[in-house]
Amino acid sequence: MKHTPWLGHALLAASTLLWLPQAALLAWAIDSLARDAATGMAVSVRTAVGVLLLGLLKASLEAWGQRRVFMQARQHLTQLREHATAALGNRSPLDKQRPASGLAASMVAEQAEAIVPWHSRYQPAQWRTLLVPPAILLAVAVHSWLAALILLCSAPLIPLFMAIVGWRAKAASEEQMVELGGLHAFLLDRLRGLATLRALGAVQATATQLRRSGESLKERTMKVLRIAFLSSAVLELFSALGVALVAVYIGFHLLGEVPFGTWGQPLTLGQGLFVLMLAPAFFEPLRELSAAWHDRASGQAALANLALLQQPGVAVVTASGDSVQPVIPSAPAGMGIEMQQVDFAHGDEPPVLHGFDLSVEPGEHLAIVGVSGSGKTVLLALLAGLLQARQGHIRLDGQPLDAGTIGTLRQQMAWMGQKPHIFTGSMRTNTTLERDRVDAQRVAQTLAHSGIQALVERLPGQILGEGGTGLSGGEIARLALARLAANPQARLLLVDEPTAHLDSETAAQVIDTLLHLARGKTLLVATHDPLLMARLPRHVRLELASTTTTDSTGETP
Ligand SMILES: Nc1ncnc2c1ncn2[C@@H]1O[C@H](COP(=O)(O)OP(=O)(O)OP(=O)(O)O)[C@@H](O)[C@H]1O
Questions:
Q1: Which CATH superfamily hosts domain 337-553?
Q2: What are the DSSP E strand ranges found in 336-384?
Q3: Measured from the CB, is residue 376 less than 6 Å from ligand 1?
Q4: Is the separation of the CB atoms in 231 and 173 below 8 Å?
Q5: Domain 94-309 homologous superfamily, CATH
Q6: pLDDT tens per residue, range 445-482
Q7: ipTM of the complex
Q8: How confident is the model at residue 23 (pLDDT cuts 50, 70, 90)?
Q9: d(Cα 86, Cα 83) in Å, to the nearest integer?
Q10: The model's pTM
């Protein structure tokens, strides 16, 4: 199917062209009946069989062609979605310019669907418009140059008006889609923050803003519809005028009132009828094109939006091709880290790390400390490949962290962010995250280890709410620890403020679990917590715009 993308369109155009022999047969039968009723009946039976067979062929070609173009359109959409989601996935989760989640979801899932009717309705109509009217014009011109001239003169007005209407249609569709995406993004954002809005009495103001956005979207949608109706009306008007003029000419010609317009001989009844039957078919592809004009505008707007999602932003280190090697779990052995002269800045902002050096022995445990904003999260994200250093070298186990190694290295890392995301689903799926390498037995053990086994037993089969609704901060921290533990291959644990906002008793339990999990592995914890710092043997202090670090032992938190 990939190698002949034109075939579906050609089949559809061929099926439309079959109307020519059908019309010829019908005109011939009526002509024969008018000349001589007896022979006319025999001709009519033969004609009926011919028209029926041609009709069957036409329907088969139409069905085959439609199926092909539809399948191609869906394949193309799937490819575009894959590219867009891959581009989104390649952007760092720490990139604040990333498209809003609601907007991206709306563009990829909903708006992108407009590409299918563009390919499956508009493009076949375009092919038919290119092939069918010229063929019909030729067939008409063979019998009457005047009828052909009438068709020829009325036809160009249609594309002309359509083009005028068309450029407005595309702009209106783009505006409508941006508005729709914006509404999705706004809604998702405010729904996520509903508790804050309610607690601070801002629900009414948000509802008013939402209503305003809804009104604006309605206006833009009406604009698109007005243009779509206008384009149909323009076309219907000109095609009706064209058909009417041909009908008037043929009628008066057969009556002998307008004797000119043919190639010498006057038209017979059959020839006149043939020309008359072809006139509406001449305009049919153009009408189809007009009906699908709006599909083209929406499809192009959706394509432009998908391209927007692929704009470069802050990139993660992405595994190249087949570079990911399966990692065989072995006895835990930590991963060594070497960072030399590493520079990092967010876009044009001042550098967060500059000429930064760090060396960590395999199996070492260290606290990354420093004032808020000094770059602790950035440091962990660089090691996880969630941000890319501008300059300098990062080596894990002696291997440079790049596209060729990241896939394999990442299997041996475990990450616990500052705000672990809890997905809607069971505790178990939230722990396994559908990872192949995580087995059920290990999950049960890790749930017990991380101290949430009691919770699992208290709420069997419980589906956790979106974003962890229904779980306390301490329970979320333990669930995140269970995720770390469920990966037997992890040799480097990167943990960002695991005890933030926890009471001292829960924090102590979380620290115990974390240190238990980290035995034999390399552990880097970004933290402000003196309790946690006191339990870690080495501290690396980052200064603001870190060119320097201070290394110290763990006695003085
Ligand atoms: N996505 C981002 N885009 C631009 N700048 C950012 C982004 N994330 C963080 N920053 C900035 O980078 C700097 C380092 O941030 P980082 O989150 O690493 O600090 P931190 O030491 O982990 O702070 P905290 O202790 O508060 O978590 C800060 O100045 C912060 O404002």
A1: P-loop containing nucleotide triphosphate hydrolases (3.40.50.300)
A2: 337-344, 353-360, 365-369
A3: yes
A4: no
A5: ABC transporter type 1, transmembrane domain (1.20.1560.10)
A6: 766 666 666 666 666 667 777 777 777 887 888 888 88
A7: 0.94
A8: very high
A9: 5
A10: 0.71
